[in-house]
Amino acid sequence: MTQQVERMLPLYEAKMLSAYDHRDADVVKSATAAKRQNQPRYLTDQEHLDPQREAIPNVWIREELVDSELPEWLTGFSDVTSSTNERTIISAALPRAGVGHTYPLYFASAPHLLLAQWNSFVVDFMARQKVAGLHLTYTYLRQLPLLPPSRFEGPCPWTVLESLRDWFAQRVVVLSCTSESMKPMAMEIRGVSQVNPWDPALRISLMAELDAALFQLFGVTRDDLDYIMESFPIVKRKDVAAHGTFRTKDMILEVYDAMQVAIDTGTPYRSALQEELA
Fold it and tell me: Which superkingdom (predicted)?
């Protein structure tokens, strides 16, 4: 015990985060596991609706041990992976806190644009051609072709009414800033300190939009998009079991087609986000 009050921060582990979600799971002690006793206990949608609810770690650390020069929000990715997993790259933004070695951080001039690319199927597909072991190291990441920040300057090809950077930023913020702790990210990127309500259906739609947009920007044809999506058998199997169809691929193709029509005709693409705000 100390004579003064100390503020403790969570020590994030990879099992606590998923794509665009820094509070995917608490870490709990398994009463039955002989090995790997620390297991994730996934938060429900109802728990996600509470903007005060954060993922509870196994370990807490003193705030003074976290570098005060770090940004108020961070971005990282899960180190433990495999090219045969459901997804190879899983990335999220998180508040400034302690972060374990299983969740390496990355720093960039526009980390939210990298975040969108890491979580996309098109970049994940390219990563699967590289990753040979069980760890997604920086060496692998540096081999991946990515769109530079300059590519996001200028008007959005399928809306024209806004910049491509703003189009991506709005969606990444809605997906990432769902608790009070992520207000600094929303303020830095969008200039608004707000919490976005947790909406599972909207999240699925926005991720499909981001995927379709990146397929467009990487110049992937519709047939190749179909082929790439079929190379994710676990995603397909889960979708078919839950919905009777490969819903993820179908949604991305639908958005991709709508964006192409918008590009060809000049009629702005209408986003799921616009429908939500209408």
Answer: Bacteria
